[in-house]
Amino acid sequence: MAIALENPFLVATYHSPAYFCDRAEETKQVTNALSNGRNLTLLSVRKMGKTGLIKNVFHQLQKKKGWQTLYVDIMPTGNLNDFIRLLGRTVVEHEWRQSKSYLKKIATLISGISAKLSFDTVTGAPKIGIDYQTPQESEKSLSEIFHYLSAQNVKYAVAFDEFQQIGQYPEKNMELLLWSHIQHLSNVSFVFSGSNRHPLTSMFADCGRPFYQNTALLFLEKIEKNTYCRFIRDKFAKHGKSIATELVKEALEYYSVHTFYVQYFFNRLFEHTETTVTKALVEQVHRLILEERSPIYYTYKSLLTPYQFQLLKAIAREGGVSRPNGSDFIARHNLKQGSSVNRALSALVEREMVYEENGVYHVYDVFFSKWLAKIF
Ligand SMILES: Nc1ncnc2c1ncn2[C@@H]1O[C@H](COP(=O)(O)OP(=O)(O)OP(=O)(O)O)[C@@H](O)[C@H]1O
Ligand SMILES: [Mg+2]
Hints:
It contains 16 helices and nine strands. By secondary structure, it is of the alpha/beta class. The chain has a five-stranded parallel beta sheet, with helices on both faces. The radius of gyration is 23 Å and the shape is globular. Helix 3 packs parallel to helix 5, helix 9 packs across helix 10 (245-254) and helix 11 (259-272) packs across helix 12. Adenosine-5'-triphosphate binds next to helix 2 and helix 11.
């Protein structure tokens, strides 16, 4: 039996279904798509739980006979060669974990992608070095990796997380290049996951592009409030602590049921709770979180122009705004008229400080939003 975690509110990793709230329907949807050979794109605003959902699906899929999973977070990659290096390394490390005789198995792959193989002196894990000079060499290697996967007698689910990152590559043909390979693989299904930023959404908005035609779209929403409330109370109870339903619901509302911020708050609240949560303790933990983050938030402030900061503060104070150009909003917060709002708003969206959803603009970081509304 797995050891129970000291603090049941995870803020950085996935552990197991026991520490994962709900997402039953979404887990089923993604699992069904992948196991029936359909590719899927998973979108949401940041920190809503996409990576967690993928890990939860993979946790279940790995138990299915004949299924193997590869998780690739492409956030650190900046071009096609980085992408190939990371994908190659993921496949090689996966094989190393699968079997002792992996070296024989991957020999053709290693030579096919012209990689130099070395080994971690501590863990013994294989590492590959790759240095391509021409686009032709790169594209041939990408093809070799996919060919390797297609030749195995296994069904793979592959996740490319932070997929919007390919929009930053200098290679502008990434979508088509990937599709030219992916469409021929009958034993590999893909989930492309990313935050709801422009590059990824435009892959869907434009019906001439391969993603629009070839993957189903799942937009990850907030966890249902009552379900989340039960999960939270249950975790306290399992550790001999208690919290009233009303306090949980208030906190869920306060953090807009945004998964990461909820998890983080309850992680800290749990840490400070002896037996029973009081309203005073809740207030204290709200304050503590903002105090700890204050130095970072002052840095954010210094990165913005005074006008951008004023607009950001106004959005935070209102807890979201649907008509930032409206004369009432402008008057309430002493903002200047018209075009300066638009310009500042675009800059804030571009810097991922503000996002728009269903026509409402919000400050992206919920803690930052609370800090802005409180401190200034
Ligand atoms: N259903 C859930 N139940 C409990 N905790 C969750 C759940 N989903 C996610 N989390 C936790 O919330 C945090 C944020 O989730 P996650 O990293 O999956 O979000 P994300 O959408 O991938 O974020 P980003 O856009 O920054 O990559 C993580 O620490 C994770 O452990
Ligand atoms: Mg993620």
